[in-house]
């Protein structure tokens, strides 16, 4: 019964957000704050799903654009990670999303960037254009560097695109971690705690493209270690 009720409420919430959000995007297509607006709306669904989301951000805030590196676990990212998406931020998604009826068109109208991962040449062109947009429009980019869902199997290997983009644009990289979400079930009343932590910025100015592999490995190690700590903390909070 709870599964059916939650599914219906979630469906209605998403439908209303797409309808009214879509109309808003038609008024101001590809505006730099459209994605933030949708993110806030989606994050409101977390309590409906029985999830308590705790968001932590660095004490020292910067207005400078950056590349956010978020871990990608499952579809619940849409309701947890979104609580941390700041203004002036757009995401990078696969080009095939454009063919998803209604959602794909709104995704593009929101200002998000589509990339053709199957075409290496076009993918590099898109990343170069993304770096240009970061500098010219003062945009931050939200990227899932794993490129696919981890399904709770820890942090998967990173693809290099996000790191090339950050170095090309000369902006910091900000790791964003969500603690384990594998326990979340729609038919469970209390789905516990998910901690979203935005780590301190990592500077890329002065780095060369030849240092992408080292930078990626260093950040992966940092994020993986911190994710283990967050998982333990979230588990302890749920046990109380």
UniProtKB/TrEMBL annotation:
SMART domains given in the database record: PlsC
One GO BP: CDP-diacylglycerol biosynthetic process
EC code: 2.3.1.51
CDD domains reported in the protein's UniProt record: LPLAT_AGPAT-like
The reaction(s) this protein catalyses: a 1-acyl-sn-glycero-3-phosphate + an acyl-CoA = a 1,2-diacyl-sn-glycero-3-phosphate + CoA
Membrane-spanning intervals of the chain: 6-26
Domain Phospholipid/glycerol acyltransferase: 66-181
Family to which this protein belongs: Belongs to the 1-acyl-sn-glycerol-3-phosphate acyltransferase family.
Domain notes per entry: The HXXXXD motif is essential for acyltransferase activity and may constitute the binding site for the phosphate moiety of the glycerol-3-phosphate.
Name of the featured protein: 1-acyl-sn-glycerol-3-phosphate acyltransferase
Annotated organism of origin: Shewanella atlantica
